[in-house]
Design a protein that fits this description.
Blueprint lengths: L5 H18 L6 H8 L3 H7 L3 H26 L3 H30 L2 H25 L8 H12 L5 H13 L1
Helix pairs in contact: 1-2, 1-4, 2-3, 4-5, 4-6, 5-6, 5-8, 6-7, 7-8
Length: 175
């Protein structure tokens, strides 16, 4: 069994992140990551089962930071609308960073089922801070309100002015 070193795993993730963001995910390969880190290709596979697993680890670090920023921004807000704006802003930073990779992934995989699955995963994660916001401000609605708001936050995160586009609808929903 090969010896697993956390610092080497971190180096692989850092190298993959650098290539991923520079190349927009086009030409990232395990071979390049191994070369960048001065290791053999097989060593990378001791830590990650595939290129997709390595890229998922890269994005997971940023996703965890995004979730922390969403919760922090919402906690500092004085009104539910401001909390949703803060959550959207944090998510926007994340989605803007990885949009080219997702486009390339969608084109390569060509599977609506895969994209639909990922969409459901993201919505499930977004529901958590939305529910916290609704509870904190005592906003009541039907059981589907958090999911609807999570969908709107995700939609708004796709463009710099996305929140401004949905603000009127949110004001009516939260009234």
């Amino acid at each position: 069994m090969p010896k697993i070193l956390p610092e080497l795993r971190d180096r692989f993730i850092a190298a993959a992140k650098k290539r991923l963001l520079e190349d927009e995910g086009h030409d990232v390969s395990i071979r390049q990551i191994a070369r960048d880190c001065g290791t053999a290709v097989g060593t990378v596979y001791n830590y990650f089962s595939s290129k997709e697993a390595l890229l998922a680890a890269v994005m997971m670090e940023d996703w965890m930071d995004c979730c922390r920023r969403m919760r922090q921004g919402a906690a500092e807000a004085d009104r539910p609308l401001e909390a949703l704006r803060a959550e959207t802003a944090a998510l926007r930073r994340f989605t803007a960073r990885y949009a080219p990779l997702w486009r390339n992934y969608a084109e390569a995989k060509g599977s609506i089922d895969t994209l639909s699955f990922r969409h459901r995963q993201i919505i499930a994660e977004l529901i958590k801070p939305v529910e916290e916001t609704l509870r904190r401000f005592g906003v009541e609605g039907d059981a589907h309100l958090p999911e609807v708001l999570a969908e709107l936050v995700l939609f708004a995160s796709r463009a710099d002015d996305g929140f401004d586009r949905i603000q009127g609808a949110l004001e009516k929903i939260l009234a």
